[in-house]
Amino acid sequence: MFKPSQRDNEIRSGTSSSQRPRKKTILHLRLKEHRYLPIEQVLDACELKMAPGEIVSLIGPSGCGKTTLVKIAAGLISPSDGSVERNTDSGAVLFQDHRLLPWKRLYDNMAFGLKAAKLTRQEQFERVSVAAKAMGFSQADLKKFPAELSGGMKQRAAIARAMVTEPDLLFLDEPFSALDVGRRREMYRALLTEIESRACTVLMVTHDIFEALSLSDRVLVMAPDPGRVIKEVTIKMPLHLRTRQLAHELEAELLSDDMIADLFRMKNWEKVL
Ligand SMILES: Nc1ncnc2c1ncn2[C@@H]1O[C@H](COP(=O)(O)OP(=O)(O)OP(=O)(O)O)[C@@H](O)[C@H]1O
């Protein structure tokens, strides 16, 4: 069974990215197992504790249960055996598919959660304007319907829609997958600014080891059959001091472990093919 106290690797020393105070636990997941159907066990025992302001990434091969773990943490599905404590009511979930309402213009899609939260029109306008700017949308874009947006724009819109609600807990399932390299970087920056300014806590799924090591305080590596955490990497270098070179070094160090390289089918990964 995996426990945070069993951290087997701290690959960088230095000051934590998050010198934000971490006094209490905002999320505590204790899982004995999860099965969608009685026969197949999808997740094995796992415990995850997150402090306010912490960014944790889940990486692992397709089908190892990353999305399932995030859905359980976010309360979208109940674990078949286990419990989740969330010490806040303010959370947002962002999936690969944008889930924008096709009959609403971009502005109204972004303001949707704010209307539900009964913010005034002026407050809605201010929040949407800030998020729209951060996500690179023009005034003209805000009048468009989702069908008139590109795949990347839809993804940015979904990120903006989650950000405007200013959640304490943000669950991200591959939010950047449809974005080009430059946009990804911009999104990272916008997201990190948001996270830093409000000590938002993030649990994120990504297929991209480099992305995980660039953005997270901790990276949990999952293996399949049944899904379980087999390695935890704590990165203490502050986010704003991280470089591509550092992330590449961390990636190389992680993949120098044959078990991890096998998991990602990345043996001899230094070679292009
Ligand atoms: N609603 C469901 N009902 C039954 N089985 C499911 C359901 N959702 C997922 N599974 C199964 O649970 C396992 C884990 O799926 P999950 O989507 O959590 O993995 P993942 O690591 O996020 O995959 P990917 O990286 O491909 O998105 C898979 O075997 C999948 O078929």
From TrEMBL:
Keywords: ATP-binding, Nucleotide-binding, Transport
Organism annotation: Cohaesibacter marisflavi
Matches recorded under PANTHER family: ALIPHATIC SULFONATES IMPORT ATP-BINDING PROTEIN SSUB 2, TAURINE IMPORT ATP-BINDING PROTEIN-RELATED
Basic and acidic residues compositional bias, start-end: 1-11
GO molecular-function term, one example from the UniProt record: ATP hydrolysis activity
This protein's name: NitT/TauT family transport system ATP-binding protein
Ranges where the ABC transporter domain occurs: 27-249
Keyword Transport on entry: yes
Matching SMART domains: AAA
Family to which this protein belongs: Belongs to the ABC transporter superfamily.
Pfam families linked to this entry: ABC_tran (PF00005)
InterPro entries to which the protein is assigned, alphabetical: AAA+_ATPase (IPR003593), ABC_transporter-like_ATP-bd (IPR003439), ABC_transporter-like_CS (IPR017871), ABC_transporter_ATP-bind (IPR050166), P-loop_NTPase (IPR027417)
Annotated stretches, region: Disordered: 1-24
